[in-house]
## 1
Amino acid sequence: MIEDKKDKYLVTFRPSGKRGYIEAGRSVGEAALELGVDLENICGGRGVCGKCRVRIKEGLLGRHDIKTGVKGLSPLTDSERKRLTRQEKSDGYRLACQARIYDNITVFVPEESRVGKQIVRKAATERAVNLEPAVKKYYVEMKPASLEEPQADWERLQAELKKRFGLDNLIIDYTVLLNLRKAMRLNDWKVTVTLWMNREVIKIEPGFVDKGYGLAVDIGTTTMVGYLCDLSGGEVAASDSMINPQVIYGADVMSRITYIMANDSGLERAHRAVIKAINQIARRAALQAGVKREDIVDVSVVGNTCMHHIFLSIDPSGLGQSPFTPAIHHSLDIKARDLGLKISPGAYVHVLPIEAGFVGADNVGVLIAEEPHKQNDIMLIIDIGTNGELVLGNRKRLISSSCATGPAFEGAQIKYGMCAAPEAIEKVKIDPVTKEVHFKVIGGADWDVDSGAVKAKGICGSGIVDAVAEMLKAGILQRSGRFNIDLGTPRLRRTEKGPEFVIAWANETAIGQDITLCQGDIRAVQLAKGAMYAGAKLMMCRLGVARLDKVVLAGAFGSYIDKESALTLGLFPDCPLEDIYSVGNAAGDGARLALLNMDKRSEADEIAREVEYIELAVEPDFATQFSQAMYFPHKKDEFPHLSELFQAKKNSEVKGMKTC
Amino acid sequence: MIEDKKDKYLVTFRPSGKRGYIEAGRSVGEAALELGVDLENICGGRGVCGKCRVRIKEGLLGRHDIKTGVKGLSPLTDSERKRLTRQEKSDGYRLACQARIYDNITVFVPEESRVGKQIVRKAATERAVNLEPAVKKYYVEMKPASLEEPQADWERLQAELKKRFGLDNLIIDYTVLLNLRKAMRLNDWKVTVTLWMNREVIKIEPGFVDKGYGLAVDIGTTTMVGYLCDLSGGEVAASDSMINPQVIYGADVMSRITYIMANDSGLERAHRAVIKAINQIARRAALQAGVKREDIVDVSVVGNTCMHHIFLSIDPSGLGQSPFTPAIHHSLDIKARDLGLKISPGAYVHVLPIEAGFVGADNVGVLIAEEPHKQNDIMLIIDIGTNGELVLGNRKRLISSSCATGPAFEGAQIKYGMCAAPEAIEKVKIDPVTKEVHFKVIGGADWDVDSGAVKAKGICGSGIVDAVAEMLKAGILQRSGRFNIDLGTPRLRRTEKGPEFVIAWANETAIGQDITLCQGDIRAVQLAKGAMYAGAKLMMCRLGVARLDKVVLAGAFGSYIDKESALTLGLFPDCPLEDIYSVGNAAGDGARLALLNMDKRSEADEIAREVEYIELAVEPDFATQFSQAMYFPHKKDEFPHLSELFQAKKNSEVKGMKTC
């Protein structure tokens, strides 16, 4: 650090602490570059983007002058006067690319001016991700072509990108090349170039454009969601969702594979339907955010293996029969135009990798969002959809599996079940003494407020979990799933098909009849939870762990479920309540992360390769485990974190009520 | 080389001389790999392709046994019995991948079994090019997918390609991925994979397929040619040509640019026309070779800058106005499907680089074919088309230029001129004493045979050059281009528009009138040749060279021109006759070389960057040089290699004939 100090000044950057002697007259931005300080530089030091705001620390250099700026630096330029607010000027803010150094200074780089800003995301473990998208914009000003410098347009642009940003060995998308001439001349040889992976020019726009958008897409078997993300800030600018139009070809994955195998043009039809849907989501999200669909310059996609194949127009037949071989595991980058997606024509679509025939890119999305591979705690992740996908482990080893839960938690196969839509009962409480029921309806008022305003139409997954847990606590249900009858409440009654419990009386419903849970409904819940629990248990045996440190419930259902009710039912082995997390659509979060940080893409490929897939159905112990797990919460396993339930249970057993 | 020889045998390869001790039981192919001997290995040692034929040298190991093969090697396998002829077997041929080593042996690797066979091409300098195409085929056999090995199809294929051929980090074209499943299962998990640049899988076919084809395309302003090349052997399997359909938008480059600038959809129309034409050429060439258009897995394209831009659908307006900036200099690799070319869907099109606004990819093709940058001799290359393109120099420095020759040498602007088609006079001889004319017609009989069978319709470029040269030698024309009249022959006559000379009498023609060359025709030839000569002269000054070591005449016209006639006219400065070469369509040859050898592609990019383009019209000396070069062969310059002409000229001057 000790150099010839003649005409050089000591420049110190905060908070990094990096410092060094910089030649007089060099800009603060150049000093940052030289000293390796992280600083935004979108416009290449042209004073156009205003992203390199820095604050010169007070007290070190005396007063700030609102007109001339900070002592020891060159006066404010026109560009700074235009881009800094009055407050910022008086606080000593400058644009690093404009302010030239004429004294020893200390420069504070605020968070928002750093390259790779951190985006904080709520998850099982609070964490931040660096903003380092695969697609970035660069602003370039060039000298006009002349007879003395008759270089071709592309070579001229390349030379400037190399000079300004050190970008080398670039290639250009064919469709961009077609517009190059016009774009370069339309705004006086000033353009904004959009680069993919710092390797390929995928868009060129005249003048300075700082915003670019990416679309993260989660193709669920039933629901498709798109998040339109601002790639320069990381925020979700808009989101849109719709029912997967493929539902007309079958409600679940297996029936869609069958449809495609039986119909010659079935794959093409299903593929086109999903592409059309994504185009619609893109159009609506763009409209909502006030941008054009062509402003979308990147797309990331997750989905289960079957949705992944159909999205790509790959025959999914192999997934429907042993040995359940997918066409590809690895992630893919495909030109959006090859898929028929109507976004920026040069853009790529990044399709996340898949783990195995039954554990798809959606689960990989969950993994890069929840990061079990970076933790010491043993984490169980349950992604609950029409299929349940389980991941168990920590940084040392991860295993995954899938289990056929059936759609009980999505409200299907339940007499009065429905999806989590308005008018669905989503929360239930039962008084252990009076057996009276309180419930909450989606779109209705809160607990204890007059709930008659919105009437119930059915009961959704979280309501079912609540109801069953409360029925257990109130002694209405036994651990075996059978009803305790003769409790002296009109809600519990016998019918021809067995006993049923009334959750909502006809006058509280919009369907003119009582909403009940019957013995068949309880059995469906038992089968679903039994499969999940047995799966988790077998995986724990395989991994050699006796207890779980953390449980993560992912999936749309997972985000609304009451954690205590879930544990009461025994959806998974015992775990402290405070270590159970509902993270919502973690697969979609994973897609967003892949959009905002390209390292997450390689992480996804690595983790997809490392996770060991195990086939549960072939485990010799499966049947035994499954039958024991059908009990609430389990036939044998201890649930030390469920004292309350056991209390209730004990009471009911003491009373020795009859069973039906 | 001295190692533990226990269970190892000394294996010597000829002609390379490489040798070493190889473990007993290893195959000759494995020995070749270990010792770094060039040997074909298309099928990865499966005994399927039969390309690794080697001959075990006689005399070293005793007799060959036609049943068991050569002593010291394992007996013939079924695969060898099937693939080697009886003669080959008795000559000691084996398949290197099948024959295992059990004694010291000497192996001769014949030329056709070497990787990178040499393709000899006739050119100014006889040379050979290694067959190392950008697109290659690999044959792979895999284990079927099973529950124990449920790897995805693509990962399974990748693993095998890595194991067999050391190919790593491969990607797969999206359209190929769609067929992967089917292709892998159709022939029992045996496939042939087509790789582009050893990086991307661009095709997959069930079973073993050894032939792949490439199409080299030369888009001329007037004529388009396609050469269908066998990428495994290097030969031209078929070729096809057609008139560039863009001629309806203008005969020359300038008029097409004007058309495009004046018509909104002009570019699209011209682009579509050329794409459609290439599709037609591909279809017809494939038909001719008995293959499918989908068997074409690579395309290389050359053309002048304007044709290059229109082919790519890039607006060529910039080429028509100062500073004449093209959109791109560098070569391009574009998916054929993005251009609408109907060949193998995953294939790329390689577009060669361009040098400057007026010196295009066609000239780069000429350069990589003629290789002036690899020689010490000072070479002048003249590519004669509607525009003349000149390159001058050697390995130290190369300069290029273009000159507006006009279409005189293509037969246009000449009263009875026509293109080099059947019925055109292509060669002319004039008796210096009697002034009687002999000519040869394209499609007609040879000299001195009764030439009346095919009558003349006009005169083409080479005929014009011959005729003018012969007229000079016979004293009919003066060096200034004026006619010597009163020579006592009815062939030379005065008309209202000046004198003219009869080449063919009406009864020898198919048009019912005499075919003549008039004063205007001679002037057109003078303008064209003057521009070329002046260009060459100015370039020689710029390069500081006084004489040419070699002259290369390229272009369709160049291949038929009589070298002596060309020198007699002074199409270029003096050069020994034996150092003048007519190389035909060297641009098309360059396209073929780029198809057969990928190093030629990088060589093209390098040379395109290195050649200095000079603008002739702005040289202060241009007008003087041009007017002096209008003389035959030149007003002042010496032509020591043209004694004959000077003799004839002297005679005529001695006779003191009148001039008109």
## 2
Amino acid sequence: MNSLERLEGLSTSLLAHSREATVSSHAAEVIDAYESLDPKDRAAYFGFLRDEMTVDHDALRSAATSYLESPDEAGAVALGTASEPVRREFLRLLNTAPWGTRSIVNMRADLLELLPKNPGLRVVDAAFLHVLRSWFNQGFLELRRLDWSTPAAILEKLIAYEAVHAIVGWDDLRRRLESDRRLYAYMHTALPDEPLIFVEVALVDRIVGSIEDVLTQPPAVDLAEPTTAIFYSITNTQPGLSGISFGNFLIKQVMGELQREIPTLDTFSTLSPIPGFLVWLRGQSDEDLEWMDPGARARLPALNGTEWIDFPWAQQDLEPVLMQAAAHYLYTVKRPGSNPPRPLDPVARFHLRNGASIHRLNWMGDPSPKGLGESAGMLVNYLYDADAVIAHVEAFVGDGTIAASDQIKALAAGRTVSATDVASR
Amino acid sequence: MNSLERLEGLSTSLLAHSREATVSSHAAEVIDAYESLDPKDRAAYFGFLRDEMTVDHDALRSAATSYLESPDEAGAVALGTASEPVRREFLRLLNTAPWGTRSIVNMRADLLELLPKNPGLRVVDAAFLHVLRSWFNQGFLELRRLDWSTPAAILEKLIAYEAVHAIVGWDDLRRRLESDRRLYAYMHTALPDEPLIFVEVALVDRIVGSIEDVLTQPPAVDLAEPTTAIFYSITNTQPGLSGISFGNFLIKQVMGELQREIPTLDTFSTLSPIPGFLVWLRGQSDEDLEWMDPGARARLPALNGTEWIDFPWAQQDLEPVLMQAAAHYLYTVKRPGSNPPRPLDPVARFHLRNGASIHRLNWMGDPSPKGLGESAGMLVNYLYDADAVIAHVEAFVGDGTIAASDQIKALAAGRTVSATDVASR
Amino acid sequence: MNSLERLEGLSTSLLAHSREATVSSHAAEVIDAYESLDPKDRAAYFGFLRDEMTVDHDALRSAATSYLESPDEAGAVALGTASEPVRREFLRLLNTAPWGTRSIVNMRADLLELLPKNPGLRVVDAAFLHVLRSWFNQGFLELRRLDWSTPAAILEKLIAYEAVHAIVGWDDLRRRLESDRRLYAYMHTALPDEPLIFVEVALVDRIVGSIEDVLTQPPAVDLAEPTTAIFYSITNTQPGLSGISFGNFLIKQVMGELQREIPTLDTFSTLSPIPGFLVWLRGQSDEDLEWMDPGARARLPALNGTEWIDFPWAQQDLEPVLMQAAAHYLYTVKRPGSNPPRPLDPVARFHLRNGASIHRLNWMGDPSPKGLGESAGMLVNYLYDADAVIAHVEAFVGDGTIAASDQIKALAAGRTVSATDVASR
Amino acid sequence: MNSLERLEGLSTSLLAHSREATVSSHAAEVIDAYESLDPKDRAAYFGFLRDEMTVDHDALRSAATSYLESPDEAGAVALGTASEPVRREFLRLLNTAPWGTRSIVNMRADLLELLPKNPGLRVVDAAFLHVLRSWFNQGFLELRRLDWSTPAAILEKLIAYEAVHAIVGWDDLRRRLESDRRLYAYMHTALPDEPLIFVEVALVDRIVGSIEDVLTQPPAVDLAEPTTAIFYSITNTQPGLSGISFGNFLIKQVMGELQREIPTLDTFSTLSPIPGFLVWLRGQSDEDLEWMDPGARARLPALNGTEWIDFPWAQQDLEPVLMQAAAHYLYTVKRPGSNPPRPLDPVARFHLRNGASIHRLNWMGDPSPKGLGESAGMLVNYLYDADAVIAHVEAFVGDGTIAASDQIKALAAGRTVSATDVASR
């Protein structure tokens, strides 16, 4: 019996002995067997879950027929019950193993990697998503502030996971946990060492446009009364929980916490990347760019090569055109087929959906290789104005209207805006 | 607008604003409104959940039709999704309120009280049960030993909840937490002050047949090496979690804990009530009792009245007949319509289903008014023999075979067994 | 070898092996041996500590001689070192046992009981007091609020220890922990289950004069903004820590905590017993009472017997004379030989020394047998006025000036004050 | 008023208001004032404590005179009381400040630095040592295992403090906390973030002689049953607690913990530096070294310069002579004036005093610059044999007898021992 067959046998057996006291150690055996499975056999195992742990089609057919004859609420409930595939119960049993939830989350991460090439496994993912969405209900998440008194075993996860502005070692991490910084995470009791999502905040006295100002400045011991909270990084850590949205509530709950703790705060803004900008721009034909100021457009070819990165004068030359293009990209360019129309940029979609407005583009906000490669070094501030959030959400959800500052609108329309205008608030 | 209408309005509105940061306080408003609702309006509110928070019948019909045309796994998943009633999502949103889970459990307790008179609300209960079963998955329960260092706020719940042998005040409770006793509970992070189910155990040196020996004896400081763990009470505390089984795992997990802590333990037994015995016996006609030893049967009429309770000689007279009848009730009498046949007595069903055997009937094991009223004062030991549990479960689940000691079988067959025989092991 | 000799041998041996790794278990042996010693042998054991664990008199004589020749600071230090008796080091070694501190506190409680009949043991107590005062330095005490979430093992100590108004069971205790009550204790890490001293506070809307109003009223759920904190009981729990003062800081630290938590509080008062009043009064001759209003004095004989307790008219008759006498007792009567003069009443001494003023006498404030027996049922409020505390302390410490309200002064001077005047603020 | 005068004024005032509720904030003011004092004024401030916070010399003279007249125990107690300088009470008051203990420990560290040039301040240090020794009684220390789940704020202290084998960053630290390593510390509640002393242990399968084997080997996942615990580093972290011995108990308590946790352990050894060896050796004249094998001695001059460090053949040449010299240094060379004789090497003194034996010299055990500079790269194992510890202590304490292995004795006697002989056990 090879290891895949053994795993399948154990899985079947777990279901058969679901009420026994041994279910927890039985589930642990299944998980061990899965974890020692050769990765190339995973698709086969998920196929087994699809093909063998199915719904009872006879019962479901019968329930569907009954319902169609008499389509009432009780019939719908019966249909719902009949449509439960065995694999869902299987996952509930797996969860009884020590660290079961963690293993299920990791299994789903494996499964998601296989989906593009194995679309037939989507029905298996549906079962994973169903149970995980229930278990990771917002009501079971704990918002926790992480700081220097947090166990190292949790803090090292932040270093490993940070996806926006990499944390380069413990000194960098410590800087982000000083008294003028905050780091909040959602935690779940089933994964006690794992921040599920975390957000990093700088407490400052103005809307900051440069990530270096956030990351490298020494702690502001003199900043007695910060006015502004900058959300400069937000990271989802668990690929296996993809599709379960945490970020929306996290930002707003953190805003509430900060407001309570520091009454002098009156401005909440992000400092965000524009991840798809250059990819998009390089895909634009000349005609696509006709909306642009012709003088600006003429400079675009300089973007090819790396000269513009290395020479300040080349950067200066490109600044107006790229600022226009980026504003246009964020404010005007839509995701194909979205209705109501939605921005192409995923970060913009996220914050606008949450009720923020596009506030300010920042030239050379992130001159790191990653920043230059994604967005020619630009960063953008999204502003969360508590009084306007609901109106923004309604407009955006309704017909796709995007809230933006005058500068953004002017740039997006191909007008030239001086750096000073942009920088000022 | 009356308070029912207000609650319904808030409920509808919660769904409409499900992605907003205010969802948690919005959910709290719904819960407050529910809790201040006149109890007589509750049925109407649950009716609202049934009638207004339904499935999308158009979509479900369409999914059912598609499935019947092409009954594959993907169609079943689509059907499952389409069969989700809105009220399930509504409960998930409610759960975001502080203490949301607790409130939902309490709401379901209210709902279950209404069901007998409002069977149409079963479809609503199906939604409650669906989400609660998922959230209270065995994997999320924490087995905790409760003792005198436990917060008073939790301990007082034990006094309030104990259903088998009432805890009469803090001194009685303290006795049950001494060094020769154990009390284990399942806890859940969403109800941090609530033991969901708890079991009380006495560590002794023999299988005890009298509850007074358990409850009133002073702590056995000299019992260095107990051999026997008596599970003398097991209590489910949350009516709102009815239908979600905890007891099975609790007993077996506690057996494991005790075995690890106290290696000298080699016997695990319950000391259990026979709650339905006298009700059943009084419903028996003469013909029903023909199986019984005629001499014994002749004494039965003495059971009417209370003389037998007050006079030892009357008790002595009744003992043989009642012991036979109780053994017969436990071992032979079945629940009508059960297939394979199942005992009529619910406690017997529970322990036999878990793999125990009926070990010994104890005359005057519980001479309290409750004990006398339920079972003429008899208690029964169910024995958990780790080596036999699986075989017992398989036999019981298979064809209904009940494991029982020779004494029980003899009594159940209408034979007379001397008290000494019964008492000895 | 009898058990006293064994204990003495172990004690000597502990000193001889003080640097060995076994010191902790060795110390535990000494403590066990002490705890199983016949109580009648305790005096002999403390005598052993006095006679055998002495200072090195040769060295001390030599140090004393040196110092007298050249009385400088270094000589004083040397003298201090030479004057250290071995028994102090012995106690430091005892402290290495598990729960050593607790045992030393208990040993000192035993010792204090023996002192009156064994004044020669005072030198032993000096060693206990020296180490305990150092270990229980105010800086090592933790102020903790105890409430219903506190472990039962700590709460039961409150029931056992409460010395002023007995807590009659868990329901009474719970009432004192409701949301309109507070209970604060000092805790020390070496005695984790023992509140060293605790104070009970009622949050109300006026200065309360009746203990029944405090203890039996249902929780004031409507009292959104209490104005007044009544300290109605303060209890030292550890006789073995007698002579180490905790109460002074406790009251003031609790005032600070309450002020922070509940900004509406503007009045802090006690509701205190007058424990020595009737004993004092019964010892007064006619001449002693000449200061009193003659009409009042004439009624005093009625105080003999118990008629005045049982009949309201008799009480009414005595009220003016007892109120005068009590005010006089508190305000005017001094402890013999105190200089500057100090009140005879120990509770008055305590609060006046802390900066309070005598605010109001309350007739029938405590009609319990204890209250009637101590002070004819009267209670007194001491008022802590944050703005006046320092001035009060300085005046009291300086020349013994007592701060008191006009009513107290009038009564103490033998004038009649109507009940209404007294009751009003 | 300059800052020194201000500090002195605050200090005097703290004593004058010692019973007031403000004592804690008053003490905090003194500490703040001390901490912002110019370091060059510290000696003056400690001089103030010496000159102004003195004993009452009149009272002490009188107590000394009385005692000399009648030298009994009560007189000794009175003398002890009279010899208490005010500065001791002052320190007790300082301790009431938040983090007071920590500040007092730090003040003493400052004071100890000043002592060599200001021997007159020793009387001030006596007061510090008196209170700290009492507060840091062994009974108040908590042995805690530190690992990767420990807060980063504590772990970073380990990196900062490690004095024997520097921890170079978090990765190095993490290696020392893996499953085959242990790190134990003594903690005190008054300094919750500060390990007072910590010891690092490697769990291995033989007595290890090379620090690189300890520090750089990957975790031994296969080492199911380690036989040997190597204590390879022990660090006192608080200069302000100098003179209060923790190490003795720490090693033995950790041995007990490890023995309980891992029953397969049967050997406990250190891997220790020989810090004073080369300094001593370079101070030896030719006559001093006459005990040595002449052939070996002839090679010694090669030790000047650095050639021997860089060339293996030069090391090889020196090995025999240095091994002999080191064994001689550890085993034979005594601290001048010690009686009974004690080794000159402080690490040897420490472990021999604790009952260890000198077990094995390890050539090139620590080839780091520090190791080469101190001891020509040699390390030594001290062996803790539980059965022999008490006998070793008694012999060492008695007449200075040193327990050592045959190899050590042979080397110390100037005999040549082959490397193989030394390496084997």
